[in-house]
Prior knowledge:
- By secondary structure, the chain is an alpha/beta fold.
- It has three domains: 7-159, Alpha-helical ferredoxin (Fumarate Reductase Iron-sulfur Protein, Chain B, domain 2), CATH 1.10.1060; 175-271 and 430-494, FAD/NAD(P)-binding domain (3-Layer(bba) Sandwich); 274-427, FAD/NAD(P)-binding domain, CATH 3.50.50.
- It is built from 20 helices and 16 strands.
- It has helices spanning 7-21, 28-33, 44-47, 60-68, 77-81, 88-97, 100-108, 114-120, 132-136, 146-159, 183-194, 211-214, 223-236, 252-257, 289-297, 324-335, 356-364, 433-436, 468-471, 476-494; strands at 175-179, 198-202, 239-241, 263-266, 272-273, 286-288, 316-320, 340-344, 368-370, 373-380, 386-399, 405-409, 415-418, 421-424, 428-429, 463-465.
- A hairpin with a 5-residue loop joins β10 and β11.
- The longest helix has 19 residues, at 476-494.
- It binds flavin-adenine dinucleotide and iron/sulfur cluster (2 copies).
- Residues 70-73, 76-78, 88-89, 131-133, 144, 146 line the site of one iron/sulfur cluster (SF4).
Amino acid sequence: MIAHPDKAELDKVAVELLQVYGNRELKAKERLAIPPQEMPSQDPHVRVSNMDEVATGYTEAQVKVEALRCLQCANAPCVKGCPVGIDIPRFIAKAAEGDYASSVAVIKESSMLPAICGRVCPQESQCQLLCTVGKSLKSIDKAVNIGRIERYVADWESRAGKRKNPEIAASTGKKVGVVGSGPASMTAAADLRRAGHDVVMFEALHKAGGVLVYGIPEFRLPKSIVQEELDALSAMGVKIEHNFLVGRTAKLHDLMEREGFDALFLGTGAGLPKFLNIAGENLVGVFSANEYLTRSNLMRAYDRHKAGTPLYNSKKVAVFGGGNVAMDAARTAKRLGADEVTIVYRRTDEEMPARREEIAHAKEEGVKFLYLHAPLRIVGDEKGMVKQVELITCELGEPDASGRRSPVEIPGSEAMHDFDTVIVAIGNASNPLIEKTTKGLDVNRRGNIIVDEETCATSMKGVYAGGDIVLGAATVILAMGQGRRAAKAMNAYLAGTGEVE
Ligand code: FAD
Ligand code: SF4
Ligand code: SF4
């Protein structure tokens, strides 16, 4: 495990840097000389036994120093990398001045969930990838830390009690249903309610928030932050119906025809776990990452002594997969007390789709990585519980459709490995319930709803869709962007203009 600078040390250095660079005009060369500010985080030895947030957030001195690194580029390439086009140089300039209220107001012109996106956006492949500072210093790690600044100003707004609910237009008398309660639906619901419609959100689970609540663990995204957004929706007058599974509790056509909804937004996500279809996947001790994380996050299974549904007592855990979901599952298993957790991945570190930061955090916490290995079967004991996994060694071959070199199994390299728990984290598909119970809703061969790119309108009149149910398993910011685009088109449709302004 690595040496760990604490928050006070990082703050002290930032205060000294502010004395050198603060309160004066800076030349580009000086800005480029300011070191990037490291994110303070909990010591890996400590955090591995708690569920608290790992990254604890910049101090005020750090955020100002980081903001001073921005060159305020006239062409702002970073903005092109942000799926919702936040005016990044403008919000960073306000943060550098210490005017956090104006800074967060700039972000909120384009994004409804900055405290969430500042934490979980894959910034290094979006806004920060295109940052001129990173390019000039020839390292993506040296780009301006846009997401961290975004997180700071959003948290400041909440801590300072400066959040204001948006104005609601006069009632239009129209009734709109929003199915699902993840980021796509939360954004659509807010924008539809602002326009003066009655908005009802239908969520299948007993808690709203989608993957933000049941998937992404507390140590990456505190649930209180998501709850704050949901409370804001309720305060705006959005009604949230829990335990309401559209397709079972009521069909889509019933909502439109019997319940009098004038329009519907579908944001039902991609919650159907994929399996490898190998022998032994039905043994006790095999979980989909979705089930494992849901039990931990939503049912608080990590709270061992209080949980009504405590999680399996694992000693040696294998996690199949190399994405963010695999990292979340592995790090959760560590926190739940497993002695040894191993990520089993068919390719190498270079091809791993998970965020670099998540991989680094997992390694710091003692998660092991077994590269170039693929599972062949899971073997159980006489009680039907996981005992071993047969793995085969792979080597890298030609690039496949994803552009990554494909794993090629080496015959004769099969070997048995001892594990008592297996978590399968190889991706999610869309839930087919609504599609199967709704005539006239067009989906593609993967089961994703087909929409008009600009308006998010589906093949059914008055029904719009966005987020993972359209894009396949994607990201929070893309889901949010689609929710916003759909709401804009729905507002036009409900106003009778039928056109996007
Ligand atoms: P979801 O968040 O999936 O919400 C859909 C909601 O609809 C759910 O609450 C579901 O219960 C409900 N629902 C489904 N069917 C019905 C029905 N028939 N009736 C009523 N309700 C229904 N993205 C990032 O950007 N950064 C990350 O770090 C990141 N980490 C992730 C970690 C994990 C473990 C997972 C699983 C995903 C992660 N993602 C991440 C992806 C991101 O969370 C999703 O892209 C995003 O949440 C999709 O939002 P959504 O609104 O489309 O759907
Ligand atoms: Fe970057 Fe995401 Fe913020 Fe856009 S929303 S500026 S991509 S961190
Ligand atoms: Fe600032 Fe980087 Fe954007 Fe330029 S590209 S405006 S330096 S954040």
